Amino acid sequence: MDSEVPDAGPRRSRLPTAPAEALEDESYDAEIRAETDEALAQTGKDVGTPIIHFEPPSGVAFSGPVISRLPREDQSLELWNHVIGLARFPGFAEIKRSMRELPQLRALGVSEDEVGIQQDWHGGSRRQKEYARSVCGVAARRRRIAGKYPAG
User: Fold this and answer.
1) How far apart are CA 56 and CA 44, in angstroms?
2) pTM, whole model, 2 decimals?
3) Which residue among 56, 63, 86, 117 is least enclosed by CB atoms within 10 Å?
4) Is 25 helix (H, G, I), strand (E, B) or coil?
5) End-to-end C-alpha distance for the chain, whole angstroms
6) What is the tens place of the pLDDT at every residue in 8-65?
């Protein structure tokens, strides 16, 4: 690998290095593109990941579910049954809200008995500040192009 960063994590944690090494292996690219195209053909291109295809080949596919906490064993079956119920409803299209906390993963420093760190939502969106910066940046570039303000 060109960089020591992706390789350092698996070696330090005694995880297998093959998945990290596969990141640079272009022999997987065509298969990954084909599988991605197939998944997006089932859902439409305006979805995220994960994509789940229920009862293929004729069943529906959609993005999700995305959860931030590990359910208890009894909760996991109930949650999955609800996901299946939504998938089987002919008119189901989407259910979504933005994540409110970091995922409950040990890799992020959150143990199974903790709730992930609550995120700052800036009035409902993590993207609001970044969006405002990008809009201001576009407006500043347009003013420079128009000659109203010289570049700094």
Assistant:
1) 16
2) 0.56
3) 56
4) coil
5) 40
6) 555 566 777 888 888 888 999 999 999 999 999 999 888 888 899 988 888 889 898 8
